């Protein structure tokens, strides 16, 4: 084979091996979730909420915090009013939260978190800090579940992020399917074999000593992924808590969804170019599969872009590499690898008790999945940009209204 053919063959084998690896994780995620027994409430929590002009949705999050089945004297609430021009500070203060007003030309969630965490560590005697988004809702047992994980020895905990508005449109339902798939098969699968989970930007909790040691160095457009990599590089595992549930609002139309996902992909490329060489070196020198797993996560945008190239090569290459030839010969293993991506979302939805109506959106979800490819390309071409795009949050509903609107039961 000539050099281009060797390269094409190597790319295809890498894609196939990555697929096979994620299918193995999916098999592990199909098992029933387990959690430690509930523990006596002992953790003093500081809840940190970065908020930029969120007066519409913030009251519902604060109400869900007040409704926690956890002793109120062990909970402090801090709202970073980040360059706000609306009534966010007033809403937060009225609910009894401590308002930390921030005015700065440095825009982005990472900078707001840096500011808020510095203030909390100086002011509070808390044992752990939990970071939430202003548009969230919390399951009533959220803090109790986090407390059980921390008492069991976890240093960093990521709760399960569900979609607050799963059936508002085909776009929000596609997000919900993505989260059912990621939560049940990838995150839970990793937890089954002792790998680190990945932070999701909200519903994440940190022991005070972790934050005091690392600070908050993550200011990329995907600060959650960046901080996950920082923790893994320091040998700190993120514990996945499937039973601790937070609900997050998702866009309902394609344009804001594309802008949000472009920011995510720009951030992923930023983290890739900054941290991938270090992770690769540590994976070899420390012999850590957790670091290999993190490196594969950073490679996802590249693998996403490589998929169509491999498919095109299979259809047009005059002298196909071995993987292309096997595909043309209808190799059963390759056929299975190609078909499984369409079955896994259905399986995840069934395991996570998704509402029946969500299954009707599966064809739209397939289209939604394809839109990731041009967004990944655009993210690569513009990864150097750090302009923060704020996703509008307007779905002002309570946890009870959510359950009624979508015929859902409380998740816990």
Can you describe this structure?
With 412 residues, this protein is an alpha/beta fold. It has a single domain, classed as Spore Coat Polysaccharide Biosynthesis Protein SpsA, Chain A (Alpha-Beta Complex), CATH 3.90.550. The chain is 54% helix and 12% strand. It has 16 helices and 8 strands. An 8-stranded mixed β-sheet has the order 3-2-1-4-7-6-8-5, with helices on both faces. The N and C termini lie far apart (55 Å).
Task: Give a concise summary.
This protein has a single domain (1-30, 44-267, 304-407), classed as Alpha-Beta Complex (Spore Coat Polysaccharide Biosynthesis Protein SpsA, Chain A). It has 16 helices and 8 strands. The chain has helices at 3-29, 58-66, 88-94, 109-123, 142-151, 170-192, 208-214, 223-233, 254-287, 289-298, 300-316, 322-328, 332-351, 362-370, 372-381, 399-405, and strands at residues 45-51, 75-82, 98-102, 128-131, 137-138, 156-163, 204-207, 238-248.
């Amino acid at each position: 084979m000539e050099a281009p053919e060797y390269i094409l063959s190597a790319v295809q084998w890498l894609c196939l091996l990555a697929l096979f690896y994620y299918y193995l994780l999916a098999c592990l995620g199909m098992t029933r979730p387990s959690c430690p027994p509930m523990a006596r409430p002992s953790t003093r929590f500081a809840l940190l909420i970065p908020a930029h002009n969120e007066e519409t949705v913030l009251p519902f999050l604060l109400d869900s915090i007040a409704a926690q089945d956890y002793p109120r004297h062990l909970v402090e609430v801090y709202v970073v009013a980040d360059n706000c021009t609306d009534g966010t500070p007033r809403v937060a203060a009225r609910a009894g939260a401590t308002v930390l007003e921030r005015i700065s030309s440095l825009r982005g969630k990472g900078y707001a978190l840096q500011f808020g965490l510095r203030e909390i560590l100086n002011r509070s005697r808390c044992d752990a800090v939990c970071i939430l988004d202003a548009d969230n809702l919390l399951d009533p047992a959220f803090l109790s579940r986090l407390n059980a994980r921390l008492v069991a020895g976890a240093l960093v905990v990521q709760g399960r992020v569900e979609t607050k508005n799963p059936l508002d449109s085909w776009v929000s339902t596609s997000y919900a399917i993505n989260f059912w798939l990621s939560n049940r098969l990838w995150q839970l699968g990793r937890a089954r074999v002792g790998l680190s989970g990945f932070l999701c930007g909200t519903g994440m909790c940190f022991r005070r000593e972790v934050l005091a040691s690392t600070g908050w160095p993550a200011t990329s457009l995907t600060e959650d992924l960046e901080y996950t990599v920082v923790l893994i590089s320091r040998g700190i595992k993120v514990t996945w808590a499937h039973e601790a549930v937070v609900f997050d609002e998702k866009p309902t139309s394609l344009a804001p969804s594309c802008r949000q996902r472009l920011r995510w992909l720009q951030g992923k490329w930023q983290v890739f170019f900054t941290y991938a060489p270090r992770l690769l070196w540590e994976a070899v020198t420390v012999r850590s599969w957790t670091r290999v797993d993190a490196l594969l996560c950073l490679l996802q945008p590249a693998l996403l872009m490589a998929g169509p190239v491999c498919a095109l090569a299979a259809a047009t290459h005059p002298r196909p590499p071995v993987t292309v030839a096997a595909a043309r010969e209808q190799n059963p293993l390759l056929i299975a690898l190609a078909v499984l991506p369409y079955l896994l979302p259905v399986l995840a939805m069934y395991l996570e008790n998704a509402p029946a109506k969500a299954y009707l959106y599966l064809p739209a979800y397939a289209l939604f999945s394809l839109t990731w490819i041009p967004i990944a390309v655009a993210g690569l071409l513009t990864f150097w940009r750090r302009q923060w795009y704020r996703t509008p949050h307007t779905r002002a509903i309570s946890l009870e209204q959510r359950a009624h609107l979508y015929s859902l039961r409380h998740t816990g």
